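Lab notebook, page 48
Experiment: co-folding of the full assembly
Goal: obtain a model of how the components sit together before planning crosslinking
Operator: M.T.
Materials (sequences as entered):
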Amino acid sequence: MTAAPRHARSGGLHAAMAAFVAASLLTAAGCGTGAGPAKAPLGSADSLSAQARDHAIRTLTEFDPGKVTVLPGGRKLREYTVWAEEKVVEVAPGIRFPAWTYNGAIPGPTLRCTEGDSIRVYFSNRGTMPHSMHFHGYHPAGMDGVFEQVPPGGTFTYAFNAEPYGLQLYHCHTMPAKMHIARGLYGVFIIDPKTPRPPAREMVMMMNGFDTDLNGEDNEIYTVNGFANVYFRDYPIPVKVNELQRVYLVNITELDLVNSMHTHATFFHVYPTGTSMTPSTFTDVVTLGQAERAILEFKYPFPGRYLFHAHQNEFAELGWLGQFEVKP
Amino acid sequence: MPKRVLFPILLLLAVAAVAAPSLVARLSASGAGPERTVALSMREYTFNGSNPTLQFRPGERIHFIVTNDESTNVLHNFRVVGMNVECGPPLKPGERREVTVTMPKSGEFAYTCCTHPGMGGKMKVEKK
Amino acid sequence: MNRWKAAAAAVLPIVLVAAMVVWFANGGSRLLTLTPAPIERLAFERVEFKQQEIVLHVRNEGPEPFQVGQLLVNDALWDFSITPDRTLGKLGGATISIPYDWIEGEPYTVTVLSGNGIRHVKTIDIATRTPAPTPRLLLVFALLGVYVGVAPVFLGLLWLPALRAAPRAWLDFWLALTMGLLVFLGIDTLKEALEIAGRVPSFVNGVLLTALGAVAAFLGITAAGRALARGEGKPSGLSLAILIAVGIGLHNLGEGLAIGAAYTLGEVALGSFLIIGFTLHNTTEGLAILSPLVEGNASTRNLVMLGLIGGGPTILGTWAGAFTYSDPLSLLFLGIGAGAIFQVVRILAQAQAKGGSALEALGRGRAAAGFVTGFLLMYVTSLLVAG
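Observation: model returned without errors.
Model output:
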């Protein structure tokens, strides 16, 4: 089965409407019949939690370089496999979310390449409604993932050259895009400059929100990389004193205008969109609009535990909170 | 004649058979059973380094020995909300607090330090 | 043979209904493609504020098992303990304890985020330390009951000599005034019930529960009235007064419940102004009991008894409301109060009509003035407790 049915609380008209819309979508998609309403397995909550937690921890430092072939002339061909899948995931301990995902989890894989590489993304839609992949960057109109919708069961190959270098992203652009993004169809796309950045400990942080009651008004849970408080409760990020840290920070939060990151006890250089090798600012709070991104570079001068979080403290206390564990 | 005597005796035996296990359980739950000691070390703003999830059996008597093992001068305390283990006076490094709790029938309970956010974990009491 | 047939005919519908239920429960409902997603319902039965701790008593009133996922206080994720289980079966309850340094007098919003990500919200307007039934608090709430219920009724009873001194021709006025007072109280009680009925889960059927109480009380008072009249056809002054006192007593029970519960649930701050308001408002209730006693004589003992019947239940109400409040029970009691009051009004109207049309009797000059005065008196004094 795919997504779980949504449950509406009594008296919540919007929730009830969302439930109705979701239910009719499911029915229209052909999965509301036969076996009765799909039920999210109550008993497997712990394993769902573990999956989401592990995914968030992996996403922090896992980069997908694709299958690399050197083409005649020296250009590199990178081939990636991505699929869309509707799946129940956990976004906070005990909170299930009927997600639409790339490769079964939120966010999708971090695709990484170098400026000028030839890119092939083999996309297949394993879902029950049309989906697509829309990359930020230069590419021909037919590769934009907007007019070429991929129907359920369909496939599409996105082919373009990786340009310009910087911190990009990809997301579904099927209408209503707000819903397809809010449900989890997004991932980070890094195009490294030909002259590599200096060595550093590199991390990906995709800031997002989850409108778990699907009322389309606000997010109940905020996370980095898909699981609330994961770097606060489950995996304080281990780093070393004076080691250069580089965070690829992307904001894909829907329903809120901005999201932000604040580091305690240190300051960072900001490279907006990663499209320049010269930082624009030296600060300890960066605020990003929707789909805006920035590369942050910083060091911790002292050992200890230091929080980092959205400085919208509302978001922080709804799950966007983490800590660095700085070792001598 | 014997039938008349036999019936009440059987009835009594049946009642005893049904009641005995729960009676024994109640007795052991009310303090007659042995205590198990669980040590919790408070260090680097965590319990036992990782804020573990602790598993208990219903009615089990647990003797918690909670020690402040911080190397810096940090005060901590130990609280289990919903189990009547209140914050108490803060512990200085090297100090410890001992508290004995009879586990309830079932549930999930948060144990925390009353002053440090994120310092704490869960205690789970599984139904029999 | 016929008897068997009759028995079979009696049992057959039951068997068929049972078969239908079994078939439906085992997936027969799948044929109905319109089956919507199940609705989650979580009732907050009680919220307690303890030392650095908030305790929620919740119940799953939806058709499916309910899973408590996360807990939010003022829109922030918070630690919590839950017993007996995170998953609540149908109609299953749980106690959630939250370590929270709440501040006296401030508003709080607690949200249970279900496993399906749905918000279930409870807002507490004024956080107040939840009273435990200590002897001292029992006394405090008893005193509260005395202030708002017992004392006013007795004060009202002190008007008896004055009423008796008034010209006899004015008796109709007093009777009608009483009816005006009572009709106001009856409507007020129903209004209270409807407010509560609006917040209880729909499966409780709040309005029907109130109606059940009202009908039962209405019929009960009718039977009591008949017994008191002892077949004389017309109830005596004292028995009428007793009936009025019973009706008012039941109303005050509901009022006490509401006051005690509102205090406990953090909905009102019981300032002295509010208590004075209730006192003035309820003094008129004593007046209502008196009107049938203007003619004939009533001993002091009888008056004390009437006062206790009318005012005493307030104390029971404040206790029950403060320490063991439950919405459905309140609905039932408010219904009983309303039913009793309307039946007493009916008896009074009959007594006044002396066999004629009750409505016509009320329409005569003094009676009409009395009715309106009574209603107005209640309305004006009710402004003192509005809020």
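Interpretation: Confidence is low (pLDDT under 50) at residues 1-44 of chain A.
Next step: discuss with group before ordering constructs.
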